[in-house]
Amino acid sequence: xxxxxxxxxxxxxxxxxxxxxAVALLSEGGFKQVxxxxxxARSGVARSTLYRHFRNNTELLAAAFQELLPPxxxxxxxxxxxxxxxxxxxxxxxxxxxxxTMAAVVWMATTGLSADTPADNDERSRLGALxxxxxxxxxxxxxxxxxxxxxxGGAPSERDIDxxxxxxxxxxxxxxxxxxxxxxxxxCARLVDDFLANHG
Length: 200
What we know:
Layout: H1 9-29, H2 36-43, H3 47-53, H4 57-68, H5 81-98, H6 100-110, H7 121-149, H8 158-179, H9 185-198
């Protein structure tokens, strides 16, 4: 995936137009609307130019997700676990507040949940690749800190880490999508403190 600005301003403009179209389609109708055909029609960019920026639909979808919800930055190492974990939870709450539905889609895709069963093997393959990208960019920052939190009982499994992330992020999504209560710093601190108390 192209991530750096090119020397040719025309390529920068075409990439921007492609991403704007993909983000609009994703926001309006979900990931199934982000097809090569739909993006080229909306952006006015030729298919051959689109493929200069993105090798396939999965890369395009991943870039559109990243535009809507930029990856959480890794917390600085060496500080107290609570402080690093709180920074991540507060940052996640901010992303959910700015785009709650898209944040829900990201986290559901990360954990393998979906409202629809993929229709065919190609779609399952695309969703699998997208899920891997989401895991790398959105769950990854939690992984290091949560692994440290759970290490007292030995090396935690991936499932242990996934469940721990769900305990922290699940309430944020529930508040944003169901109760409409604020995910402010005080609430985030309570989530982190409860989590740490339960995990020693």
